[in-house]
């Protein structure tokens, strides 16, 4: 009997069936089958085998119905240890191949843009130096002597180029945060402007200085200084267009997650649609709670249960009393629809009761474990330094005392897929190292945190799809709606312009607040 329970727990923890109705119909028939026959039937009918997460916390079966669990289900749960088979489905293979193809195209586009910008930047910094050195190399003997003013211009050019180099490094040489579908219009315009500017300077230099071999060396140096000054002004223009223009809030965007309806509001300035989408995604990972599809399982199963049809048996034979059957089905469906809110109410009340009870057990277990740690630390302070226990060993020592309560709470709140045993041990050792309280340790598990709080492999989506009726390079406008899609859900973004606010001033005379209190000498009795 224990072997049967082990086999059933193994397959229920790592494989999922698509035909839930068939499984429910055959549950009673397959209950007494041997483990070997159950294994054989499952290998033939399974359509998807999901790879289990690394070191799950004593099981990770999110699809198991919560209603059938009692408070003592932990004693009948089999913990699977050792090695396990990792398999992958055809859908995962197709998605991985598509991601590889997209990543190759994006990498080529990214490196091409970086190469063009680097070549143009190198040309910009070498052009003033070339303007000064070419006359010295080609017709050095014919040049007029460079006086004090000319030598001072050398220092001016050197420091201006240094300032331009530092400003360019601070503004442009940043690690890219994302790959946008289209080019950044203002940055492309700046690159074109710089290219045309440098090309025009080279054209004038070649016609008026190189061809005629101008002997006025001071004028040539001043020409190079004017180029550097113009480049500094272009850099100032780049700061205004790329950084300062978007700082003033002009629009308010509402971001709604399509699955659970969670919403946030953000204020944005003058941005294109693709850059606004990038800002929305950056704020999404920080502000939105982690997406948990297991929380939607209960509502979906409840809706499917209410939408299921009712079986009506005709005892008089086929073809008789058809209208009576239809009326009976309609009446039964109406009664079931009227009582659905009562079922929802009692189901949610029972779930909240279980959550509160298991939360209380978890809090007590964690407080007792931390109390034990404090007592151990007080005892180890009297020992030699070499015999003291490090935080990792202390976390491993007290974790079994709270593991069962934590496991039950995570299963009840459907968070077990986001917390592996290794991550819990790391968090526990971190809390012990920094002398944190039990409440600080439990904050991560009692309150679902933002997406960035969890393991990157469990939530990170490598690719988002931007869907917009307008061009993604166009600016934000009032009433624009665009959608950011990933594999499991989408973010619907609605843009509203901040209204024009008119303030008026009302002057209040300071003397209007003064009053005189007059007292009569005679009073009525």
Structure explained in plain terms:
The chain has 525 residues and is an alpha+beta fold. Among the domains are: 98-246, no CATH class; 251-292 and 460-497. 55% of the residues lie in helices and 6% in strands. It contains 15 helices and seven strands. Mean pLDDT is 74; it is low at 1-90.
Q: Top keywords for this entry?
A:
two-stranded antiparallel ribbon; alpha+beta; VANG1 protein; 5-stranded antiparallel beta sheet; 7 strands; disordered N terminus; 525 residues; 55% helix; 15 helices
Q: How can the largest sheet be summarized?
A: 5 strands, antiparallel
Spatial arrangement of strands, main beta sheet? 4-3-7-6-5
Number of strands: 7
Beta content: 5-15%
Helix content: 55-70%
The mean pLDDT is: 74
- Count of helical regions: 15
Distance between the termini: 102 Å
Structural class: alpha+beta
Instruction: List SSEs in N-to-C order.
Output: HEHHEHHHHEEHHHHHHHHEEE
Biased composition (Basic residues): 19-35
Keywords: Cell membrane, Membrane, Transmembrane, Transmembrane helix
Biased composition (Polar residues): 1-10, 74-86
Region (Disordered): 1-86
Summarize the structure.
It contains 15 helices and seven strands.
Question: What are the SSEs and their pairings?
Answer:
Layout: H1 2-14, E1 15-16, H2 20-25, H3 35-45, E2 48-49, H4 90-138, H5 148-172, H6 185-210, H7 217-244, E3 251-257, E4 263-268, H8 273-287, H9 297-307, H10 322-338, H11 340-380, H12 391-412, H13 421-433, H14 438-446, H15 456-459, E5 465-468, E6 481-485, E7 490-497
Helix pairs in contact: 4-6, 4-7, 5-7, 6-7, 11-12, 11-14, 12-13
């Amino acid at each position: 009997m224990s072997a049967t329970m082990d086999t059933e727990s193994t397959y229920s923890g790592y494989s999922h069936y698509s035909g839930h109705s068939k499984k429910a119909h055959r549950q009673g028939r397959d209950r007494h089958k041997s483990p070997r026959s159950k294994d054989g039937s499952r290998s033939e009918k399974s359509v998807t085998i999901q790879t289990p997460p690394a070191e799950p916390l004593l099981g990770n079966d999110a699809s198991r119905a919560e209603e059938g669990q009692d408070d003592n289900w932990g004693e009948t749960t089999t913990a699977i240890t050792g090695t396990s088979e990792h398999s992958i489905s055809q859908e995962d293979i197709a998605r991985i191949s598509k991601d590889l193809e997209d990543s190759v195209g994006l990498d080529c586009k990214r490196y091409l843009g970086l190469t063009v910008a680097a070549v143009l930047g190198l040309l910009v910094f070498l052009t003033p130096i070339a303007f000064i050195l070419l006359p010295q190399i080609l017709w050095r003997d014919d040049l007029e002597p460079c006086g004090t003013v000319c030598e001072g211009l050398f220092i001016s050019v050197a420091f201006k180029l240094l300032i331009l180099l530092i400003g360019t490094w601070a503004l442009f040489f940043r690690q890219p945060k994302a790959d946008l579908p289209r080019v950044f219009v203002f940055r492309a315009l700046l690159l074109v402007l710089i290219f045309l500017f440098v090309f025009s300077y080279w054209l004038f230099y070649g016609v008026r200085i190189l061809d005629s071999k101008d002997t006025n060396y001071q004028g040539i140096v001043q020409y190079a200084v004017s180029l550097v000054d113009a480049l500094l002004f272009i850099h100032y223009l780049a700061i205004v267009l790329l950084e300062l223009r978007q700082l003033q809030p002009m629009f308010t965007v509402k971001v709604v997650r399509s699955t659970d309806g969670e919403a946030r509001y953000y204020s944005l300035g003058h941005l294109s649609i693709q850059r606004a989408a990038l800002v929305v995604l950056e704020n999404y990972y920080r502000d939105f709670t982690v997406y948990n599809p297991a929380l939607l399982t209960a509502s979906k199963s409840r809706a499917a249960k209410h939408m299921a049809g009712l079986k009506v048996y005709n005892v008089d034979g086929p073809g008789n009393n058809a209208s009576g059957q239809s009326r009976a089905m309609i009446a039964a469906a109406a009664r079931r629809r009227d009582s659905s809110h009562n079922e929802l109410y009692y189901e949610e009340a029972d779930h909240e009761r279980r959550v509160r009870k298991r939360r209380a057990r978890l809090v007590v277990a964690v407080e007792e474990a931390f109390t034990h740690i404090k007592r151990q630390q007080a005892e180890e302070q009297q020992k030699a330094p070499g015999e003291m226990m490090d935080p990792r060993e202390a976390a491993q020592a007290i974790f079994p005392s709270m593991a069962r309560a934590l496991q039950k709470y995570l299963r009840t709140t459907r968070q077990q897929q986001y917390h592996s045993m290794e991550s819990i041990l790391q968090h526990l050792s971190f809390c012990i190292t920094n002398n944190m309280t039990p409440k600080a340790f439990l904050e991560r598990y009692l309150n679902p945190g933002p997406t960035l709080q969890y393991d990157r492999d469990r939530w990170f989506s490598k690719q988002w799809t931007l869907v917009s009726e307008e061009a993604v390079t166009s600016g934000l406008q009032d009433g624009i709606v665009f959608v950011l899609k990933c594999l499991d859900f989408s973010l619907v973004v609605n843009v509203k312009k901040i209204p024009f606010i008119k303030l008026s001033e009302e002057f209040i005379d300071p003397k209007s607040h003064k009053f005189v209190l007059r007292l009569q000498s005679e009073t009525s009795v």
